[in-house]
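Entry for the shared binder. Reason: the reviewer on the internal report wants the predicted structure included alongside the sequence.
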Amino acid sequence: MTTFHPEMPKKCPPKDAVSPNGIFFRFVFNNPPIPDDFVIWVDEPENKRSLDDNKRQGDCGAFAMSMLSEEGVTRSGGLFQFPLLKKMKKKAIQRNSFLGLAQVELDSNSGMIKQTGQNPHHYDLWPYLNSKIERNVISVEEILK
């Protein structure tokens, strides 16, 4: 089904977003990953109170989930060069949970994707409501023990 979050601003996803096709990576807090590992930013537990503000401001990124390209994970220096990793480790400790990196195969049934931000390997994915991305996980590498 090609519908998005019901609260997402009408201008989202951006017109230059495309159907994904390939392997991407996402930080996850469960192994195996569960649906809660693949929620959009406004649906993450610490961000839920921001829904109305982000909708009013037309913030497309708040209605997406972060993904990383394969090149970004395997490039020289590897995963541990990501400034985001420190933040994700802190979040895992606060949640008293596992932290891993899930390898996920995305296709046209997953949603729409666009490279965003200063990191050329970071993407926003606007998932279709019933995409069940957790079913597309190929593997999970543990980061925090």
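Summary line for the report: The domain at 22-144 is CATH 3.20.170 (ADP-ribosylation fold).
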